[in-house]
């Protein structure tokens, strides 16, 4: 085996070992690259319509955040606020929870 083959074999082993050790850390970066890859045509289209790259990227990022996590976060925030109202109100927990529009516990079942 020549020195070149040993070097590349050693480099490949070190690379695979590094990926294996850092797999939990690298996942968000891989997902981010995939999202950027799929949303780039939208940014290019907005650039053709006259927006700068910065404004097109900002617009796509804000819209993706609002569409992707917005509804979930709004519902989560509403539930947290209503739960705080229940804890802080003591004896008046039932009327305040009802005013939040929350269904009774166990009423929502996964579909």
Q: How many beta-strand segments?
A: 0
Shape: flat
Uncertain stretches: none
H/E element order: HHHHH
Mean pLDDT: 80
Number of helices: 5
User: What is the CA-based Rg, rounded?
Assistant: 25 Å
**Approximate strand percentage:** under 5%
Structural class: mainly alpha
N-C termini distance: 60 Å
Q: Indicate the percent of residues in helices.
A: over 70%
- Biggest β-sheet strands, sense, barrel: none
Provide an overview of this structure:
It is flat, with a radius of gyration of 25 Å. The model has no long low-confidence stretch (mean pLDDT 80). It has 111 residues and is mainly α. Among the domains are: 27-68, no CATH class; 70-102. The chain has helices at 3-21, 23-48, 53-68, 70-89, 93-99. Helix 2 (23-48) crosses helix 3 (53-68) and helix 4 packs antiparallel against helix 5 (93-99). It has 5 helices and no strands. The longest helix has 26 residues, at 23-48. 79% of the residues lie in helices and 0% in strands.
Question: Which key terms come to mind for this protein?
Answer:
111 residues; mainly alpha; 5 helices; 79% helix
Write the layout of secondary structure elements.
Layout: H1 3-21, H2 23-48, H3 53-68, H4 70-89, H5 93-99
In short:
The protein is mostly helical and 111 residues long. Helices cover 79% and strands 0% of the residues.
């Amino acid at each position: 085996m020549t020195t070149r083959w040993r070097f590349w074999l050693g480099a490949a082993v070190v690379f695979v070992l590094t990926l294996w050790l850092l797999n939990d850390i690298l996942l968000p970066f891989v997902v981010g690259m995939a999202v950027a890859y799929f949303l780039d045509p939208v940014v290019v289209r907005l650039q053709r319509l006259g927006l700068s790259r910065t404004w097109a990227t900002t617009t796509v990022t804000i819209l993706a955040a609002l569409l992707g996590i917005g509804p979930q976060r709004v519902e989560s925030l509403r539930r947290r606020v209503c739960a705080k109202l229940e804890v802080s109100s003591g004896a008046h927990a039932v009327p305040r929870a009802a005013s939040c529009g929350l269904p009774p516990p166990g009423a929502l079942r996964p579909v």
